[in-house]
Design a protein that fits this description.
Helix content: over 70%
Shape: elongated
Oligomer: single chain
Radius of gyration: 16 Å
Structural class: mainly alpha
Number of helices: 3
Strand content: under 5%
Largest sheet: none
């Protein structure tokens, strides 16, 4: 495995861990729009996961650049959704409805 592949794999594992945290935050507490955003993230994550797997057999420089770009966008979106969900979770009081 090349240094690039190791770096991408490590970043991707971290992103997947963050996605699990977001899913847990959203479960039962998210608005429809937030649930839709989480689902879009999950779908994009599956696309990236496939690209990361394909990377292991690819020497295509463009493919590597595309994976890096996709992961960067994914991580920005993860951060935005996480911030929204965390701020909502913090502002709700026990027994408060959506």
């Amino acid at each position: 495995m090349t240094a690039f592949e190791e770096n991408v794999s490590a970043q991707w594992e971290k992103s997947k861990s963050q996605m699990k945290e977001i899913e847990a935050l959203a479960k039962g507490n998210a608005s429809q729009a937030e649930s839709d955003a989480v689902n879009r993230l999950k779908n994009k994550g599956q696309e990236i996961d496939k690209k990361v797997q394909d990377l292991k057999t690819s020497t295509d420089t463009k493919a590597k650049a595309a994976i890096e770009a996709d992961m960067a966008k994914f991580n920005v979106l993860l951060g935005q959704v996480a911030t929204t969900l965390k701020s909502q979770a913090g502002s709700k009081t026990p027994g408060q409805e959506k």
